[in-house]
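Quick illustration, no need to memorize.
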Amino acid sequence: MTKKLWNGRFSQNTDKIVEQFTCSIDIDKELYSYDIRGSIAHLKMLAHESIIKQSEADILIKGLLKINKNIENNKFEYSDSLEDIHMHIEQALGQETGKIAKKLHTGRSRNDQVALDMRMYLKAETKIIMQCIYNLQKELIKTAKKHIDVIMPGYTHLQRAQPVLFSHHLMAYYEMFKRDFERLKDSLKRIDVMPLGAAALAGTTLPLNSEYTKNILGFARVSENSIDSVSDRDFVMEFISTACICMIHLSRFSEELVIWSSFEFSFITISDAFTTGSSIMPQKKNPDIAELVRGKTGRIVGNLVSIITIMKSLPLAYNRDMQEDKIPLFDTVKTLKACINIYSRMIPNIKINNSVMYSASKKGFLNATDLADYLVVKGMPFREAHMVSGKSVAFALSQNKELHELSINELRNFSNLINNDIFDYLSLENMISRRISFGGTAYDNVKKAIQKAEAYLMKVCVI
């Protein structure tokens, strides 16, 4: 049985079942490259401050680089008895360099070590996810630009409400993902903090140079309080919270793609490459990608509940409960990246059925508000105009007609302010063109919104 780092205090060996229960190597081995980078920076600092000899640091750094290569090449053995990736690397370094490896942990605890690894990991992954969102935004803009003139029904309560440009609808998702991008960018300020030097919780008596280590690792600043350094997981909770919001945006988009691609709607046709069939019904073409993304959103919501629950009652400083933080974090990172990336690939391969959307926009009294607006322009108070339009709709329903299918005499039964110009006023194209309020669906508005988005993406900083 492998001797533990804390073996001096204990008179009995750890029970095998305890080793299995406390082992986290299957999860945290993903941190190996960050753990090795952090250890190399720590060694360089120790040598710089003459806490260990430069020659010792050189030997240990060489050993760590060899271990890193072995792990990359799948030539590294893992064991439950060594608990986590930190102990695995330290043990392997001992086998590689001998007793000198025991100097690696000088002035350091696994508490500040794991905090460092997680911050390095999340800093890198956050930048990758920002790039993924950036790519998704570009695809949304391209699709909106390609279908700039397509008119579709806009919905509230999943009932046809008013006509909108399909491009305007897509740009609503661009705005959502823009907020996700900006939230991630802002969260980097709180991730980009160097905790190494806090040791277990109280700092160390050794003359460490945290600024030197910070500069080697490329952190923006050093953590201000050693207790907070090892016990803080706000950055994990914040990231998963932001990821959760992004996944909800993807889920809302998924819901619409599922509805739009149904036979009943037929607004879009999703490429065969991004759909699946049925094992029993030959005619089926299922929007499984959209459904899976919608389903995976539940996992991320669960991960947010998990990390918040883990942290909610923990006293300062480090507690072993915090070992469980990696499962929701790693799963969230992998799931979010996968969902964003597959949508970036799927969106350009969706066929937009323009004529179906246009035809749907002409049914369901989407021009009722415009009839009221027409009367307002003629001088009628809006509440009265709303009543007149509502009565017109009720009459049209009784005749199995749309408003624009009623005759001028039928319309004038409800108000003599209505003239022949009403039919031109109620055309889909004119209804779209008139919605010129800031952020509205008018053609020029949407074109300007696309241009603004393109300019934003040209200058936005994706690292």
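The mean pLDDT is 95.
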